[in-house]
Design brief:
It contains 14 helices and 14 strands. By secondary structure, the protein is α/β, with parallel strands linked by helices. The chain folds into two domains: 18-81 and 322-420, Aspartate Aminotransferase, domain 1 (Alpha-Beta Complex); 102-304, 3-Layer(aba) Sandwich (Aspartate Aminotransferase, domain 2). Helix 8 links the parallel strand 8 (233-237) and strand 9 (265-269). Helix 4 (137-148) crosses helix 9. The protein binds 4'-deoxy-4'-aminopyridoxal-5'-phosphate. Residues 10, 136-138, 141, 162, 164, 208, 212, 237, 239-240, 269, 271, 279 line the site of 4'-deoxy-4'-aminopyridoxal-5'-phosphate. Keywords: Transferase. GO terms for molecular function: 8-amino-7-oxononanoate synthase activity; pyridoxal phosphate binding. This is 8-amino-7-oxononanoate synthase.
Length: 430
């Protein structure tokens, strides 16, 4: 009944690295030093970007030397809105009008007319009665889990859920059980277990629309039907589905043609397609009104700055006015995947996330560093964020990348894979 410690998804924990015998702080710092040095040396993390968040970014080399231009294949800024002139203008105008920040949490002095407008707009786009904005997606997940669930309630969640859901479960000491990833039979089994023990229990089933590591989609209609037959609520984290799925970019529910109010709790972030920071929860008016007072990550945390709120509002307008941008993202993903398959890589992306597996014998960080030197920014993901045999390059597509830029990136991936001996055309590459 406790959350798994080594889930898939982004349930990353430093506990996996540290020796529990390392008692003093000095011992722990010493033990961790090789990881930090390796990370800096190979450029795996903390790369310093020195210019705008476009499809091509300027990045300082990890040794602090040269600054180079890299093709960006490692950003959640899927639609390229992070550098869209009219969105930048909206943020600048809001700063002039409201100042740089609120200097307080929403229930005190942190609610401007912009915040209100954004909440109304989010409720409208999600087809819900109400919505509330948090300072991050992480805070939104921790907030609803701890604010909604009480003793006797049960949360059933997909094992590949994001770390923020796991943290909410632990913080709220919520009775919970994981079900196997996207496995409807296992979910049904879990629902039967809970109902058998406690016929009247409140049950919430938590899934992600799009899972962040593999980019695969939850079978939402079937999950909805299961929730209905067991009288359970459905909560969806659509961090990676919003702006990516559905003809109008409204997310996973739209992708499946599910109508308004198809989930009881809708959670999303502004850190992906909206390329800023923040998160939200949408649902019934009662749910939102309650969470405003019981979600401590909302009540005790300062509101988003007006610039961010205005940027998100302008982004929603932009997506509504430019469905072709969403189509462009799909085209780019399909093209990139097709070319990778032509090279022999086994990829079949359902969304804008394209994982390319790297054999376990290699250090992913070195492959990432080689691609950096070759002009491509891509993130590596390794244990414990994913199982060891599934370490990978995690390509995130952008709508604003041109064919030439994509071809360049494909060529570099091919060359680097060959130099590390994992190009599928090479013998014994796997
Ligand atoms: N949920 C999912 C599925 C995510 O991928 C993320 C971000 N990685 C979050 C929640 C947290 O969002 P944020 O970065 O806005 O805090």
């Amino acid at each position: 009944m406790t959350p798994a410690t080594a889930g898939h998804g982004e349930n990353f924990s430093l506990e996996h690295y540290l020796d529990p015998a390392a008692h003093t702080f000095e011992q722990r710092f010493e033990e961790f030093r090789p990881y930090v040095t390796n990370a800096r040396g190979s450029g795996f993390v903390l790369r310093e970007i020195t210019g705008p968040a476009g499809p091509v970014v300027q990045v300082r080399d990890p040794d602090g030397g040269e600054t180079r231009e890299l093709i960006m294949l490692g950003s959640n800024n899927y639609l390229g809105l992070g550098s869209e002139p009219e969105i930048i203008e909206a943020a600048v105008a809001a700063t002039r009008e409201f100042g740089v920040g609120c200097g307080g949490p929403p229930l005190l002095n942190g609610t401007t007319s912009l915040h209100r407008r954004l909440e109304e707009r989010l409720a409208e786009t999600k087809g819900c009665e109400s919505a509330m904005v948090f300072s991050s997606g992480y805070a939104a997940n921790v907030g609803w889990v701890t604010g909604l669930l009480r003793n006797g309630d049960t949360l059933l969640y997909d094992e590949q859920s994001h770390a923020s859901l796991y943290d909410g479960i632990q913080l709220g000491r919520v009775r919970s059980m994981a079900f196997q990833h996207n496995d409807l039979r296992h979910l049904r089994h879990r629902l039967m277990q809970v109902r058998w023990r406690n016929p009247g229990a409140n049950i919430v089933v938590a899934v992600e629309g799009v899972y962040s590591m593999d980019g695969d989609i939850a079978p939402l209609p079937e999950i909805r039907a299961l929730c209905d037959s067991f009288g359970a609520w459905l909560a969806i984290d659509d961090a990676h589905g919003t702006g990516v799925l559905g003809a109008n970019g409204h997310g996973t529910a739209e992708h499946f043609g599910l109508g308004d109010g198809s989930v009881e709790l809708y959670m999303g972030t502004f850190s992906k397609v909206f390329a800023t920071t923040g998160g939200f929860v949408a649902g019934s008016r009662d749910l939102v009104d309650t969470l405003r007072f019981f979600a401590r990550s909302y009540m005790f945390s300062a509101s988003l700055s007006p610039a961010v709120v205005a940027a998100v509002l302008a982004s929603i307008d932009f997506i509504d006015a430019h469905p072709e941008r969403v189509a462009q993202l799909h085209d780019n993903t399909a093209y990139f995947a097709r070319e990778l398959r032509r090279m022999g890589f086994a990829v079949d992306p359902q969304t804008a996330i394209i994982p390319i597996l790297v054999p376990q014998r290699l250090a992913v960080s070195e492959v990432v560093a080689a691609l950096h030197r070759a002009g491509v920014f891509v993130n590596g993901v390794e244990f414990p964020a994913v199982p060891r045999e599934q370490q990978r390059l995690r390509v995130s597509m952008m709508a604003t990348l041109t064919r030439d830029q994509l071809d360049f990136a494909l060529e570099q991936i091919s060359t680097v894979a060959r130099s590390f001996g994992f190009h599928p055309e090479q013998e014994g590459a796997a």
